Amino acid sequence: MNPRLALVFLAALLALPAFAQGEEPDEPLGIGATPLRYGARQGGRKHLAAAHGRALDKALVRALKWLALHQSPTGEWDPQKFTQECGEVGLGKCDGAGTSKDRIASTALALLAFQGEGTSHISGTYKDNVALGIRFLRSQQNPDSGQFGGEEGESSLRGHALATLALSEAFGMDRSPLLKGTCNKAVKFCLAAQSKDGGWHATTAQLEQGDTRLTAWMIQGLEAAKDAGLEVDPEALKRAAAWVDKVADKSTRPGATLLARFALGQPDADALPILQKEGDALLMAKPKWNDKGNDFEAWYFGTYAMYQLAGASWRKWETSIKEILVEHQSKRHDQRGSWDPLGPWGLAAGRVDATALMALNIEVFFRYSRPMR
User: Fold this and answer.
1) What is the CATH number of the domain that holds 285?
2) Residues in contact with 126: Cβ distance below 8 Å, sequence separation at least 6, in sequence order
3) Residue at 41 is within a domain
């Protein structure tokens, strides 16, 4: 291992909270004076227990602890090899290794989970984990193209979109000059990979179609960069909005299209009937735990979108997702704090992605403002 990385990781280990087996801290994990997009929304996580119940708050604490203790010494969260870090949360090894090799996507999702509760690479209980994760993502960027990773395909572009989102949020939180160039290059690649029709497609070689979830992640990444003060071509966002309008009625993933609309800033009075129609379609597939398989990514898109929609639609969704988040979090041995990645989606994504996305589901309850209020 690189000696410098070894020293940084040692510092990260020393900074981790010294919990006894089965204990969680009662205090917030790092809420600080951060911009509102990046945690500490509306009182932040410190009000999560009061507003939504202590069980949900403790589920987030356990999830972040599990993620922190399954990070590789070199900074990444590996969807296949995370089991090499087992034994710190509890006895034995976790199952749920994914078939995906996309360390960039898994690392970005984990970073988003930590940043979502207010931790950055300079403040918060898990600041050293965040610093290592950022260091890993920066090391994976092509200095010429700006792409994170190098292989074409949905996994690669999804990883790039997620890394752009995570690092743009990191830059927005702390304004680190080291991240500005990284984020600008990442944005440049996002724009170059955009389809002619405004969406993003699974491979950069095919530009005729877009993929709904991939496009939703790309839009979030570009909007986060724009919110952080980085330059993003407004015409690219207009093309993306037009693509969302075109595919929304035909999409089998209404959560992704509805979230994309909110990310693009479409929730005005004229758009309300369209938003409500898509929300009604999303409610037809509200979360319900299935031991044969669950799609945590779809649930995250849905939770974020329905929280924005608010009202009766959100209350119905909220009841379903809160039960899942609390009742189905693993309490077994080293898996304590994670969620079981069941079914086709889980087989590919694995336990790391599942846990990061479920943590992000919880953070929706306090992380974002509601433009439709």
Assistant:
1) 1.50.10.20
2) 15, 16, 29, 30, 64, 68, 114, 119
3) no
pTM here is 0.86
373 inside domain: no
Q: Which two tokens stand for residue 326?
A: 């609390």
Query: To 5 degrees, how large is the angle CA 244–CA 250–CA 253?
Result: 75
Closest CA to 62 of 43, 90, 82: 90
Q: What is the radius of gyration, based on Cα positions, of the chain? A: 19
Q: Give ∠ CA 263-61-345 in degrees, rounded to 5.
A: 55
Residue 270: its pLDDT value, please? 62
Segment 319-329, tens digit of pLDDT = 999 999 999 99
> Is residue 20 assigned to a domain?
no
Is 236:192 a contact under the CB 8 Å cutoff?
Answer: no
* Kind and range of the H or E run holding 110: helix 103-116
Domain assignment present for 221: yes
One DSSP character per residue, 343-354 reads HHHHHHHHHHHH
Alpha helix (H) residue ranges in 264-371: 272-283, 296-309, 311-327, 343-367
For 42-69, how does the pLDDT look when each residue is reduced to its tens digit (9 = 90+)?
Answer: 446 777 776 777 899 999 999 999 999 9
Residues 6+ apart with CB under 8 A from 129: 12, 16, 67, 68, 71, 114
Number of domains in the chain: 1
Handedness of CA 310, 315, 317, 321 (dihedral sign): positive
Domain around 205? 3-14+46-367
